[in-house]
Design goal:
The chain is an alpha/beta fold and about 250 residues long. The chain contains eight helices and seven strands.
Length: about 250
């Protein structure tokens, strides 16, 4: 179920009224839905996305303070963005990036090195570059997954990154305190990215999840966005990984 299919999503958090939230990866999926819920809660937005056209569409809908179109893997541009960002801001959320599933027999070592470097470098880059922009008690919020906790064919890269991002989040929470740092670990989420990865197998996957998940429905972007907004609002939460997968990791292989 997604916002596009008529799901109104959870009620917005009133504590975001007047706060400024930077969403990196804001032009589609979880990032866009989080931006919508922030806006509905009275928050102000700075939207970052790689695709200028989709970013412009999001901006037309949400009327942000500003937008910036660039690839978050460009570390120089990421640093420049935060240097030029008027501060302070209250929260920064990063949804950019996608999981990599590839069996060892198909693995290219140089490509794997780039994938590790990009994912971890973006996380560290945001942490380094926004230290002087996020107010004390504000939030850095990153994305990971629950599927990578199980070993399996094709899981070499994603499982290593899953473990690394949780450890990195906990350490950053100590290093950046009193700024808070948290990680959302999602299972399958019904987003345009999922559709592009699954192609004509998408509806079969949805039906499988509706039949097997303990919640008996598919997790949508509005569900993850509601968790993101809660982590922004609840200032007792830092240094942890928060699962949202409808019970997917409880199922047998």
């Amino acid at each position: 179920m997604t916002a596009a299919s008529g799901d109104p999503g959870p009620s917005p958090c009133p504590d975001l009224a007047g706060q400024t939230v930077v969403v990196i990866g804001a032009s589609a999926g979880i990032g866009l839905e989080t931006a919508r819920q922030v806006r509905a809660g009275g928050g102000r937005l700075v939207l970052v996305g790689r695709n200028p056209e989709r970013l412009q569409e999001a901006a037309h809908e949400l009327q942000p303070l500003s937008t910036a179109a660039f690839d978050a893997n460009d570390t120089d541009r990421l640093q420049q963005f935060f240097q030029e960002l008027p501060g302070p801001v209250d929260h920064v959320m990063v949804t950019a990036g996608s999981p990599s599933y590839r069996p060892l027999s198909d693995l290219d070592l140089d490509a794997a090195r780039r994938e590790f470097a990009q994912r971890l470098t973006v996380t560290l880059g945001v942490a380094l570059d926004c230290r002087d922009k996020v107010r004390p008690g504000g939030t850095l919020l990153f994305m990971s997954g629950t599927g990578g906790r199980r070993p399996g064919v094709g899981m070499v890269i994603v499982s290593a990154l899953t473990a690394a991002l949780s450890a990195l989040t906990a350490n950053l929470a100590l290093e950046l305190a009193p700024i808070r740092v948290n990680l959302i670990a999602a299972g399958f989420v019904d987003t345009p990215l999922s559709a592009s990865l699954l192609g004509d197998q998408l509806e079969a996957r949805r039906e499988e999840l509706r039949a097997t998940l303990p919640i008996r429905r598919v997790v949508g972007p509005s569900d993850v966005a509601a968790l993101a907004v809660h982590l922004m609002c609840n200032d007792a939460l830092t240094g942890a990984t928060y699962d949202i997968d409808g019970g997917q990791q409880l199922l047998p292989h």
